[in-house]
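INFO batch 0412 | record 1 of 1 | parsing
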Amino acid sequence: MDNAFPYFAHGKYKALVIGAHGALGAAFVDAFSSDLQCAYVEPVSRGSGSGFDLADEASIRAQADLSSAMGPYDIIIDATGALTIEGVGPEKSLQSLHAEHLKQAFLINTIGPALVLRYFSPLLAKGASVYAKLSARVGSIGDNKKGGWYGYRGSKAALNMILHTAALELQRKNPDLRVIALQPGTVRSALSQGFTSSSTHLLEPSASVSGMLQAMKSLGVKSGAHFVDYKGTEIPW
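INFO prediction complete | emitting tokens
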């Protein structure tokens, strides 16, 4: 990856990737590790030995304290999220809705990431820093043409609102901060397995990450958050 973020005024930058053991998280770590401009990348995941768990606020706070030792970070990527939770996939109809599954969908895809944003955003460097979170096109209300997938759609739409709201707040202190909701495309991963047909064009994780990095590189400063896909195309909220 050649000079992915030229707007980091000091040249070298530090990156932090949350969800680093997932397909996309690992690909982000690989991309940063291979970039000569990246001075350091900090991987965070449930398997990192720190006890980090999206469902446990205390563990999120504790991990942020640990990660602060190597900060501040010029770019933070939150690559967490789940489509199938405890063996249950997305609902296709209202009759498939169950309270507990909805709670879990919002816990993993909205509440956990919101708390990650709370505790990790203070680790961002001053100036032209980036906070990016994997979202999903199905979280777009304006782009919803098919319905279904209630919990996943709802939790991602709520996530997008939190990102946009947080961006407005954080930019009062750092106007050059970019907060970005990213749609990675349909990626060959454990998350997409079982929800793609033989005709679906699947991206390799490295290709998706390369696209998202290029998309982030081209985004200017704006009030609030960006919502773009891996090709850099803006998605309606």
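INFO post-check: The chain has one domain: 13-229.
INFO record closed
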